[in-house]
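Lab notebook, bench 4. The sequencing result for the construct came back, and we need a structural model before the next group meeting so we can plan mutations. Quick request posted to the team channel:

Model the 3D structure of this chain.
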Amino acid sequence: MRRFLFALTILLAASAFSIAQRPAPPAWQTKVNEQLPLLGHRNWILIVDSAYPLQASPGVETIETRSDQLDVVRYVLGSISNSIHVRPDISMDAELPFVSDADAPGAARYRAEIGDLLRPYPVESVPHDKIIARIDETSKQFHVLVLKTNMAIPYTSVFIRLDCKYWATDAEERLRAKMAAAQPAQ
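Done. Here's the predicted structure in token form:
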């Protein structure tokens, strides 16, 4: 009986030790995990390069990830994919295709890698200033989570506007048409 209790104690201690040794997820991952259930359509998650400006709008929250941008994009898209309530509408800077390796070493490789990662999604190309203005306007009413990465190539930010996963745009259009048709003529 003593041997059994001793073996059981060793087994439990080893299990507790291995659990204690698992590193905690980075703070930015914890933030994504905590906030994603609260976010909905019209909220944004931005995965940005290291020179992206700290915005002053009260609806914008910026987190320094100290992580590789592609890893952050991969994690965020995986989290969104696993959610039941939101899907990503992705925008990127229209300037990126014109950034040369001569001016920003690694730009071509980044374009290929982000292209592969975002292949399953439609991606809208928008001039940087217009996206920033869109974010500024949105943040007056809705929360924007900015995940700042260690990326050092310009115009590489990935802008994700969340939309409703279980209610499609065409369903919303049909609903609005029915509502308009039901309105009495004035």
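The radius of gyration is 22 Å.
Will bring this to the meeting.
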